């Protein structure tokens, strides 16, 4: 199993231009806005102590996992509070991701819940420890949108990434030249300095896949790759990049044929993330022109898993997809 994504960076010369830019290319890909210091810095720190009670993506994941184990053990929040010698309200805020959780508290609660799996225990302890660590994307915190930071955080932590892309080549598989062409296509002027920054962020994100840090599966609708058949240098390079990427042990590229339009119409672009040894989907990011939202409820996650499985079943096999890409290559 393996998966896809795309993203970028944005700033404009005015607030009017900014609003146009952020809705232009493709939501999370253009996740940069001017000078959002305080709100984003809190988010990029990780769980920590979320400002104004705003849960971060890491604190929510840890809290959700602890709640799941508590309920599986048949215990209430009062029992958890007694074990860590805190108020019940503290446990409630921990489980909703509104306050940080220490590694010691996590171990104590996992002992209480009789969670013996060493991999699961280590995973949750590491989440607690890493909640205040800065990622490489912190360097862009002055201009990065919070929803974009959420996506990058999920991507950085993931062990499995699965992406459905109906219109463009996923950002994790884009060449710098193709990325630049996507970023600069639109009705609004984008300063060259920020175009370069967007491309750089996209390349930094790709390192995780290139270094084998996650299994990545991308399902791409055929029109998105057929559009690369004009013989231009940028498009030829992008096709070659897709063929090369599909040969990596941790990357799967599948093309959904144009004829499967009903399957393609089930959902817009989304990315599913898993964080453990098993590919159980624990978060999904959904892109729209204005922003990117994180889906975490079990019912909604099950829906996206079902959609992705149907898309994968309707898609060409990896070998067939590679052959189709070679046919499109001029």
Write a brief structural summary.
The protein is an alpha/beta fold and 330 residues long.
Taking all Cα atoms into account, the compactness measure Rg is: 21 Å
- On the 0 to 100 scale, the average pLDDT is 82
Shape descriptor: elongated
Helix content: 40-55%
Order of helices and strands: HHHHHHHHEHHEHHEHEEEHH
What structural class do the secondary elements suggest? alpha/beta
How far apart the termini lie comes to 30 Å
Strand runs, count: 6
Structure annotation, total helices: 15
What share of residues are in beta strands? 5-15%
Q: Largest sheet, if any?
A: 6 strands, mixed
List low-pLDDT spans: 1-28, 32-53
- The largest beta-sheet arranges its strands as 3-2-1-4-5-6
What can you tell me about this protein's structure?
The protein has a 6-stranded mixed sheet, sandwiched between helices. With 330 residues, the chain is α/β, with parallel strands linked by helices. The longest helix has 19 residues, at 192-210. The chain has 15 helices and 6 strands. Helix content is 48%, strand content 10%. The two termini are 30 Å apart. Helix 12 packs antiparallel against helix 15 (318-328).
């Amino acid at each position: 199993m393996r998966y896809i994504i795309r993203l970028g960076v944005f700033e404009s010369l005015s607030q009017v231009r900014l609003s146009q830019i952020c809705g232009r290319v493709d939501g999370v890909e253009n996740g940069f806005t001017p000078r959002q210091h305080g709100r984003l810095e809190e988010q990029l720190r990780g769980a920590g102590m979320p400002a104004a009670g705003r849960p971060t993506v890491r604190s929510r994941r840890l809290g959700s996992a602890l709640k799941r184990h508590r309920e599986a053990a048949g215990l209430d929040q009062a029992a958890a509070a007694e074990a860590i010698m805190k108020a019940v309200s503290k446990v409630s805020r921990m489980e909703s991701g509104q306050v940080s959780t220490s590694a010691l508290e996590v171990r104590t609660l996992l002992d209480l819940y009789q969670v013996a799996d060493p991999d699961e225990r280590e995973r949750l302890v590491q989440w607690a420890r890493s909640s205040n660590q800065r990622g490489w994307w912190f360097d862009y915190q002055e201009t990065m949108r919070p929803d974009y930071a959420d996506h990058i955080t999920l991507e950085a932590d993931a062990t499995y990434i699965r992406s459905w892309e109906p219109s463009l080549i996923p950002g994790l598989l884009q060449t710098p030249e193709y990325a630049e062409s996507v970023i600069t296509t639109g009705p609004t002027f984008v300063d060259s300095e920020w175009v370069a920054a967007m491309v750089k962020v996209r390349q930094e994100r790709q390192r995780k896949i290139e270094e084998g840090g996650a299994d990545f599966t991308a399902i791409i609708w055929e029109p998105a790759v057929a559009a690369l058949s004009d013989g231009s240098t940028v498009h030829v390079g992008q096709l070659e990049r897709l063929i090369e990427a599909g040969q990596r042990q941790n990357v799967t590229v599948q093309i959904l044929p144009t004829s499967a339009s009903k399957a393609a119409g089930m959902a817009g672009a989304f990315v599913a993330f898993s964080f453990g040894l098993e590919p159980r989907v624990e978060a999904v990011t959904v892109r729209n022109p204005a922003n990117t939202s994180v889906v975490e409820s079990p019912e909604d996650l099950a829906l996206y898993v079902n959609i992705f499985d149907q898309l994968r079943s309707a898609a060409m096999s990896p070998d067939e997809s590679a052959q189709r890409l070679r046919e499109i290559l001029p």
